[in-house]
Specification:
Length: 110
């Protein structure tokens, strides 16, 4: 059921830009997706969760900050070590690269 909900939310975010804003503005929105990255019982749900984070974090520095604060880095590293399919691992690597831009910004300000 969670995997289906993640896939539906992914489709919604792809077509409705206001849905991205609503998700980012929800106090628990990004955090809830981060928790689903590795905890969804099947790998399709994990792939949808990673895809959702890619969609939301691509345009939003705030979403990237929230995702990192919620522990997405650990979740992605665990996912990369799991038995998920190659497509999911590729998406996880892409999200890590996207989040690296946030790390680079933070290190410049320190």
């Amino acid at each position: 059921m969670a995997a289906m909900a993640m896939a539906t939310l992914e489709k919604l975010l792809e077509v409705e830009s206001s849905a991205k804003e609503a998700l980012v503005n929800n106090p628990n929105g990004v955090n809830a997706i981060v928790r689903m990255v590795f905890r969804v019982s099947d790998h399709e749900g994990s792939e949808s969760a990673v895809s959702l984070l890619m969609i939301v974090c691509y345009d939003s520095l705030r979403a990237r900050e929230e995702a990192i604060g919620a522990g997405v880095l650990t979740q992605l590293l665990l996912l990369l070590q799991s038995q998920c399919n190659g497509r999911t691992k590729t998406k996880a690597r892409m999200l890590l690269k996207l989040l690296r831009s946030k790390w680079a910004e933070d290190s410049k300000h320190v």
